[in-house]
Amino acid sequence: MDFDDLALFVRIAQLGSISAAARDRGMTPAGASARLASFEKHLGTRLFHRTTRMATLSEDGQAFLPHAEHLIDASKVAREALGGGQAVPRGTLRVAAPSSFARMHIVPGLAAFVQRYPDLRIDMRLSDRVVDLVEGAFDVAVRYADLGDSSFVARRIAPDRRVLVASPDYLERCGRPRRPADLDAHDCLVVGTLDLWSFRGAAGESIEKRVAPTLRIDDGEAVRDAACAGLGIALMATWCAANELRTGSLVPVLAEYPLISTQTLWALYPSSRELAPKVRVFIDWLVERFWPEPYWDEGLDILS
């Protein structure tokens, strides 16, 4: 596959015009159009829908674009490695991240990051589903999970601490549980499939309790808001509920039985890929922002 063809394809996608991409690359519009047609014939698909003024990506073109961008970026990394020294981060950085965490803790800091690296463009996909980094052509993913896949390189970016919480109003109406078994008599709110809650007993033993949720939502912020509204007891990450714990709209429950969590927030990238400068600086920025003690846990008495 010719890298000049890939570069032309990516530039047309960026500018939305064959003529504009041709001028940008020092070609005639007719030459660029002929080269694109030859490239599409080679691939066996139409990459763009064309009008006299615009070129918009087809469905196949949309699917092909991130892979083409990755190939071009990888080529740049390889060439820059020959020259030695530190390459300048540039290009499109494709990031997959959990929805709530990204909205609360990554996006608010992006202004400083993009000011530091003005040659970078960021394409961020927010989803609580575990995405396929290779299939989606992502450069890096943020995940909070136990890692069992050796095909990824992982770097810790933050601890993922969990607490059991409820609103003062709920506890006044329904009473306070004294031990995990008492949760059977309470309304429990569950994020997604996390209905098996593990506690540490007074003697250090592990106590597992599977709760029957009265409300299950696949979004942590929504479950937190439901707990604030007095709907029940919820297991929450401190990165999601720290502000509510500070203000007292949520209070700890079963503090004598701390939750056991083996999860950590990780930044992952496929081990088969060269660590491009854009990926390295993004992961370094995440670590600088969150590790080893994230700002959301500062001053939380429940963690002392």
Overall description:
With 304 residues, the chain is α/β, with parallel strands linked by helices. The chain folds into three domains: 3-82, Arc Repressor Mutant, subunit A, CATH 1.10.10; 88-160 and 263-291, D-Maltodextrin-Binding Protein, domain 2 (3-Layer(aba) Sandwich); 163-252, Periplasmic binding protein-like II (D-Maltodextrin-Binding Protein, domain 2, 3-Layer(aba) Sandwich), CATH 3.40.190. It is 38% helix and 23% strand. It contains ten helices and 14 strands. It has helices at residues 3-15, 18-24, 29-43, 59-83, 99-106, 110-116, 168-174, 220-228, 238-247, 277-290; strands spanning 48-50, 55-57, 91-97, 120-126, 140-145, 152-159, 162-166, 188-191, 196-200, 206-210, 215-217, 233-237, 251-252, 264-270. It has a five-stranded mixed sheet, sandwiched between helices. It has a five-stranded mixed sheet with strand order 11-8-12-7-13. Strands 1-2 form a two-stranded antiparallel sheet. Helix 2 (18-24) crosses helix 3. The longest helix has 25 residues, at 59-83. The radius of gyration is 24 Å and the shape is elongated. The mean pLDDT is 89.
